[in-house]
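J domain-containing protein: structure, please.
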Amino acid sequence: MRSAVLRRSQQALKNHKPPTRHNFSTTLSSSSSSIPTVCQSCRRKLAEPASPSTPQRRWQSSTANSQATTNIPPRASAVPQTHYEFFPKTLPKGPPPSGPFHIDARELRAEFLQLQAVAHPDRHGAHLKLRAEATSARINEAYKTLQNPLLRTQYLLSQRGIDVAEDETAKTEDAELLMEVLDAREEIENAQAEEELVDMKRVNEERIRVSEEVLDGAFQRDDMKVATAEAVRLRYWVNIKESLDAWEKGKPVVLVH
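Here you go.
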């Protein structure tokens, strides 16, 4: 019986056929070659199928483009939103009350020149020239405003929605101040020589210094009422200074009231 079972097993092994093995590379090649290259309806040549290397070439191109854009200046969203943000070295704490009202004029100018050297339109390609010109103009405006105590004061107030630069109602009702301004105008107009105005120049420079001290304290306390009133006073003193600097014998004096 055992010998009969052994014979049946041997016979089964002889009759068994191993599964057919497919050559993967051959199949892939034949399937690729079977793809038609000519449209059967219009007989036009079809586009060749993309090769396996295409995705790699596309990635390399994308990488090259991303590297090319690294030298492009930041977009408008990254541009400083306030004049103070243009000068992080000179004004690291920003505007008052976080930072001081007074600004070191030499440090501000040094940083301004550095910024303009980088942002100058001539240093950029044609496709970035307009953006560079806009950035350069904003840097100029920021510097012009911050280096001038009166313009700086008016700018800080404008950031709080207070307009003392263009608002005609932003005038003083201080009768003593108005009399002082009128006396200064008369003295400037009656001067026969510039030497006669030396003392007035010294007095007026002291007025400006005191006004800046008052403004510094007001902004540090965040007292916009005092800052607004002192901004109007400072505008008078600056106007007198401009009249003194531009003095000519017999020339009428125009002061802002």
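Notes: Residues 21-36, 44-77 have pLDDT under 50 and may be disordered.
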